[in-house]
Amino acid sequence: xxxxxxxxxxxxxxxxxPCAAQEAGYDDGPSLEKLLPxxxxxxxxxxxxxxxxxxxxxxxxxxxxxxxxxxxxxxxxFGDRVAATADVHFLDSNGSPSGELQQAxxxxxxxEKSATLLTIGKFNASFGxxxxxxxxxxxxxxxxxxxxxxxxxxxxxxxxxLGNTHLTARPFVAANFQGKSNLEGPPSAGIMLExxxxxxxxxALTNWIGPGFKAQEYDADSDSDAxxxxxxxxxxxxxxxxxxxxxxxxxxxxNGPDFYAERGGTLYFIDAKFTWLATAALTVEGxxxxxxxxxxxxxxxxxGLLLLANYDLTDRWRIFxxxxxxxxxxxxxxxxxxxxxxxxxxxxxELYRGLELRAEYRHDFSDETGDLDALSAHVTFAY
Length: 383
Fold this sequence. Notes:
single chain; 383 residues; Porin; 3 helices
């Protein structure tokens, strides 16, 4: 049975990066640096932004759902080789407020000749084709792969261009897969290789090895974990009402992985992506990921594919489309062992520099849960 719903998203960004305005060919807009004394603004970049979403009640759903993300960030430069960045977020989901230090890292240029960079702290992972924050993405809602891969890393990364090969290597050591400040157990390690032979084509391959995950067991007769995040089995979604609640939760996957699992075993993770500027107006992106998880890392944990296209009709109008697929073999990502597809598309219009309106239609379907059709409206600000 097909379900219908309306999803309204209101992302807001107040960015203060002056080069963005210059590249767009507009006059400089509002900037927080203009409020700072010149002596501070010379080496300090400050930015603030926000994002909000609202999901009206779907038929048979229990309640409306809304999210809020407000953030403040700053980068302080120390000379020509060292910079420190902090990015603090305030989150609120249906009246459950929380705070998050999304980024806090120091970057140092170890060698000017070889362009070697060292990054230490908590920083965005940039594994997949979808950037960490909504205002940097082409579309509206996040794909099925967004919550199946790291969005933040807590650790250390070295960035090293490899001569004139157009290759850049980024080996890293991270505390955990989900980017949280849980330092228990051994760390994970990996490397990202990026190849950009020409401006129009960018390829990247990331490998990861570290502690794996063990899907939580759901016991309907036990309430000992009532205050924790339980993992319902497929049978728990047998009713139409429960199925609706689960289907709508797929669209709330905007803050990164939140697995229905505990740490255990070994995880081998690989992610491949490409960005191709086919023409001056058409951008095509693709991604594939595979996670082998288990006692020896030899069992399929989850995997997925994504294909995205964005076409600029004019300087202000553009259209976008996306398909993503997730094989959640152990139910670690979504809580239900399933094969899920997502198809979405929409249009965007830039009213003026930094202000863009987006509209998106999305259809989700699975072999274990009901279908979901959703319309979404978006607005982004970038100043």
